[in-house]
Amino acid sequence: MRKVVFVVSLFVSSLSVFAQTDTTKINTLSFGLNFMTHGETVRGGLPVDGDAENEDKSHFLLGRTRLIAGYSRPGLEAHAVLQNLAVWGSSNNKALNLYEAWVKMTAKNGLFAQAGRIALAYDDERIIGTNDFAMASLSHDVLRAGYEGHGHQLHAILAYNQNSSNVYMSTYYEDGAQPYKTMQTVWYHYDVPRFPLGASLLFMNVGLQAGNKGATDNPPTTEYQQMYGGYLNFHPKYVTLEGSYYRQGGKTVMGNKAFELDAWMASAKATVTPSDYYGFTLGYDYLSGDDFVPSTYGGRMGMPLHKEFKGFTPLYGSRTQFYGLMDYFYQSAYNNSFTPGLQNAFIGVIGKPVSKLDLSATYHYLAVATDLYELNRTLGHSIDITAGYRFTKDISLSAGYTLMFGTETMECLKQGNSSKTARWGWFSLVVSPTLFTTRW
pLDDT above 70 covers what percent of the chain? Predict the structure, then answer.
């Protein structure tokens, strides 16, 4: 009997040794793919000239392929994403870029440091986001360090961009991979313990390139713009209340020249979901706009004369999430770079009639934020209808249709008749399998 007990004990001990050996596999390496096929059909809303007005429409397919590699062990992570983006049938489909490539070191006390090309996203992504609906998406070459723990998150972000490692003319930054020369950002977020409230504070200092390369009368300079503000999210059981406020100051750059900037925005949104099957959204956005002196020609607005710019810019946010899926106002410029601001009042309904299927419909009332000469402030009315279905955890399909009914104000401020009425349909098929994962 003692021999039997001894043999059993030895067997159990052997299992425990193997179990301990298995837990020592602290290194993880994984590879994955992300395929997105995106199609659009557009009628109206396009910049056109002359005879092109009769062909104010577009139909195309886009393909995005990403190869994703990741490595992790306690205290260290590495991540890289290669990306190819091209229109179906285009001869320019050989472009391959590095969308992300970073390493991150983390200490046990919550301190971390991260460096490389990073897809940044903060809060509701209004100011800093990936803008993934735009296919190419946004990423930044930065050093990020901070602390995360006990409900607190504090991030400091630093960026300094060049086109090359030249000894001479290294101050000038022209047509670079990033829209800014330098950037410093501090973000702090706190989640209140045992209470459904989160709050964030954000400060950004962005250096924009002005001047002309090699010029003596207008030499290259870096002009600095500041943004500061905050975001609140209160989410009891059936309700989510969101609010944000940001101000912009310092200087902005237009046509390689710097101008004083004083702009602001505020937003409020309520989402009510009394059931797992339906819900409602209601909200309002206000983005300040420029004062101007009009000099009309050809029936359009002339160049605004500024002493100080007051048009708010949402910088590097995911704009299609907030001002309509067509991103009608901050993706493309108004005539002569006029920025009249935006008022966006919206109401929507969301539904989930069956598992894995999500539906939504949102109405937007759109208006400029500044007084216009002999024009009403109303830009128009927009309706966004979307549907999404997730077949499996790595296969999903989404589609949408937008109707834009513009006014005379829209016609004057944008691109003539083409902007007055628009129809836009789209779909996106995303397949993102994990090829394999190994541990040792």
Answer: 84
